[in-house]
Amino acid sequence: MSQVNAIGSIEIQNVVASTEVPVELDLERLSLDMNGTDYDPENFPGLVYRTRNPKSACLVFRSGKVVCTGADSVDDVSTAIETLFDEFTELGIPIPDDPDITVQNIVSSADLGAALNLNALAIGLGLEAVEYEPEQFPGLVYRLDEPSVVVLMFGSGKIVITGAKRVSDAETALETVDDDVRELGLLG
Question: The domain that contains 75 carries what CATH number?
């Protein structure tokens, strides 16, 4: 799924969201009763339930907490959780009537369409908002206050936006970065 604006498009790479059921879960029993699960408590404390359509993984914990990751959209997260909860219902596990699904993080990417001089950007954007250590990581880390996201900028002009709670946050971040870079005269 991608959102298109005047600058270019945001491509969602991953949506992470959480919800819960109001009971403690027997993960070993669930791993036996449900298809598409992985449960290896020696390596990970939760049960992994994979959905195919949409492609995602729901991490199910004994406490009843569920974290869904790997979905391409907020709608896909809802569908994946609904699929898991349908399985739970068949197994007699109580499901909230209107489950509270909280988006924790939307990771998206975009392309500014031109190469970036990261050294000049590090200085121009201000050292208080930027981390740039090319010996350790090839990208510039730009922390925005509004929206509260982190933008990774690469010399190729590609960017990754992480920490968004809504797609509109990622779109606003892309516009802000584009404006900031243009204002500095560092983008065509």
Answer: 3.30.310.10
Both 130 and 93 in a single domain?
no
72-129, pLDDT tens digit by residue?
A: 999 999 999 999 999 999 999 999 988 999 999 999 999 999 999 999 999 999 888 9
Q: Can you tell me the distance from the alpha carbon of 128 to that of 104, in angstroms, rounded to the nearest whole number? A: 25
d(CA 145, CA 136): 24
pTM for the model? 0.87
Both tokens of 32, joined, read 């036996």
Name the H helices within 2-129. Answer: 27-33, 74-90, 118-125
Q: Do residues 109 and 13 lie in contact, with contact meaning Cβ atoms separated by under 8 Å?
A: yes
The pair of three-digit structure tokens given for residue 85, joined into one six-digit string: 């909860």
Q: Which domain holds residue 142?
A: 112-183
Q: Does 30 share its domain with 86?
A: yes
Domain total in the chain: 2
